[in-house]
Amino acid sequence: MTCTIGAELEHVSLADAARDDGLFAEIRALLLKHRVLFLRDQDITRADHVAFAKRFGALEDHPVATSDPDHPGLVRIYKDLNSPPEHYENAYHCDTTFREAPPMGCVLRCVETPAVGGDTIWVNMVEAYRRLPEPIQRQIASLRARHSIEATFGAAMPMEKRQALAARYPDAEHPVVRTHPETGEKVLFVNAFTTHFVNFHTPDNVRFGQDFAPGASHLLSYLISQAQIPEYQVRFRWKKNSVAIWDNRCTQHYAVQDYWPAVRRMERATIVGDRPR
Ligand code: AKG
Q: Phi and psi dihedrals of 243, rounded to 5?
């Protein structure tokens, strides 16, 4: 859909793909190539949605979003007049990287969309890494960073709830440049959940101790800001029954919060991933 990311699949039903090995294998290969796939008119049941997502692997719950009691693994992201924007999704992020093993990917279906607004943007973080200046690539090659649930979901919560969340999801540490486990590509792997580098050593911070690293926060902000570059992005206009399938290991996304108080209802299945290396 753009020169760097996204493809739209036509004349494919995900209900069929849930049952057809060949079709599923083709979709999986296209996902690795294009990083996010879009399909229209997927008037499928919730059971079909879950069955298709499960072809990729086991599903996991979301730390803050509500799961559908009748369809374990399906999370509701429903917004209306009574749920004002909480600024969770409208930050460039890779899903739940505060987990040791963040998700492999997601299958998101639109149940209801506002007349205007509510688009979602995806970003190709392999391209973001490739286009970094070479000295920066060298500088970040062996850097590691901390990812925390408190940086985003926790920030707006009362302290007690926030502490409970942090206890349930302790911070994780990941490489700043991860290698995609299937394609072998290098991926710039910092996002809204990333709080700081844990091994940014310079002559100065050896003197001050490794938690105080002059230049580190500037470098981290610079790396995080790469997701905002339009050349690495695709922006999708939802319709009822549109579906997006994304590879969470090499993309970030941003749900545009411009529609409140209109109603927007999405349902999402999240596929368990592996530990970034
Ligand atoms: C997420 O599922 O992580 C989101 O950011 C929501 C995406 C969307 O609702 O478009």
A: -130, 140
